[in-house]
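Ticket #4471: complex job returned nothing on first submit. Input attached below:
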Amino acid sequence: MNNDYEYVPKNSFTRWLDTRLPILRFTNEHILQFPTPKNLNYFWTFGFILTFFLITQIITGVILAMHYAPNSLLAFDSIEHIMRDVNYGWLIRYAHSNGSSMFFLAVYIHMFRGLYYGSYKEPREVLWILGCIIYFLMIVTAFMGYVLPWGQMSYWAATVIINLVGTLPIIGDSLTQLLLGGFAVDNPTLNRFFSLHYLIPFIIFGLVFLHIWALHVPGNNNPTGVSIQGKQDTVAFHPYYTVKDFFAYIVFLLLFCYFIFYNPNALGHPDNYIEADPMLTPAHIVPEWYLLPFYAILRAVPDKLFGVLLMFGSIVVLFFLPWLDTMKVRSARYRPFYKMFFFIFVLDCLLLGYLGAQVPEGIYLLLSRVSTFYYFAFFILIMPALSRLEKPNPMPIGISNPAIDQNARLD
Amino acid sequence: MSDIPEDDKPSRRDFLYITTGTFGAVGAAAMVWPLVDQMNPDSSVKALSSIEVDISEVPEGGFLKVAWRGKPVYIRRRTAEEIIRAESEDKEDLPDPQNDADRVKKKEWLVVVGVCTHLGCIPIADRGDYDGWFCPCHGSHYDISGRIRKGPAPTNLEIPPYEFASDTVIKIG
Ligand code: HEM
Ligand code: FES
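Support reply: We reran it on our side without changes. The output follows.
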């Protein structure tokens, strides 16, 4: 990134510090003055929002851990203790549980944004892959966190998911026992989940730094998908985008507050207020809303192993996007066909989410199969085919240059 | 660093690098095993792996549900009519073919692990299209021999290792 700005320390202390730990130089060059495309829309505020939600989860989580007891005999009661006895315990717990839903909502918007504007394409492949790793770790963390309250849903979600591993040929059984630390979900399982649930967010935190590092090498993509050509295309991150990002963050916080203060259990499942009972399965086991599409894919397939492979495959395929979609034009704005298939894909994901909460029989089963097919077809068939066949619309020559380039060049 | 030879011939130093590296890697790999193995079931978990159950109180057609290794085990005392049904259905088109006789030690007593072979939910006794067990999670139906008849589960309910310690006591595990 061509960066004309040069940090100049202003007083003797900052000059002294700059030759020892150039942290102010770094902050100035990489945050405050970072040249950012001037045409970013509100979909670009979700990275900032995500960073804040990660911090929220870490702070509320560390506080919860001060009062929570990671033992199968005490866990359920300690949650009630947090809710009833600990000062503001209810607030902190509701912030943490609804915070994870907000976190996933934001990450889905963030990812669909990348998909729409082609942010995964050259030169941002590593950035995209780091994002996929972060997303996968978020899923793992959320799943383990859901087990900690030790309610019926916690227990049975853990049972069903760990049993998925058991479908793997040969190593399945020993691997399941290794994960469980026993023959069924029990105290050893709870202990290790707690330990890992505490650890992984800090790994995510580290990965977010790599993610932003990888962002700052090529710089942001933008709604036109056309690369930055010079100073006329950018503005300093501060104050232009700090203000925009903060505004979006505050609006998003309103939604968060609605859930915390007016509807804190809307996104949860009532059965999780019943203590875990290893001898009794609840009638319906459903995961949290943000994992429902994967559950639908799992159950769409009659064969157990194949279902598990497809479910993991639905995440693995994301890592390969930069090589499945080789069309040079990034933004869907100039790709009428891709745009149409993209919106069908968004609807398809929502439909999968709805189906994940239904009993997989009759019409629901049929729909799950069709939408699972589309999910994979979008990546594996449609993207490569469009890369070859689609003729993009005329594009602007540059961000600040509305003249249309008939040959749709990129750089 | 003047002692590094100019030509590409492997030097004594290369040899030392490679041996040191190899020893280091083997040592590190050996260290990893305890870190992984600590996750496996520990001795206190394994110590609970066998139980004795008194079955003298179970009425004909009734069942007991006991916990073994943290999982439920159904001990079912089958009626004469149920035994006949289970045996006559040996010839049906079973997804996981197995004769009833191979699934019991005494015809009257069926002992199965109450964990659905699909994804591990607990099937409910006396339910389902085959009057054996029904799993509410994704709709698997098992018959009175614990065999899978309909639904997504791939195999029959598992038979735990057990023996009759006496006429009225079963030792599981
Ligand atoms: C903890 C989760 C995450 C955090 C905190 C985070 C943070 C950020 C931030 C601060 C930015 C720059 C601002 C922006 O463009 O919105 C960014 C950009 C980006 N992120 Fe993430 N991210 C996360 C997860 C993900 C995931 C799961 C993906 C995709 C699989 C992803 C893909 C991208 C891409 C492609 C960009 C570049 C956007 C562009 O400039 O066009 N991120 N991320
Ligand atoms: S777990 Fe029993 S049917 Fe799926």
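Strands of chain B lie at 51-54, 63-68, 71-77, 109-113, 124-127, 132-135, 140-142, 148-150, 162-164, 169-172. Closing as resolved unless it happens again.
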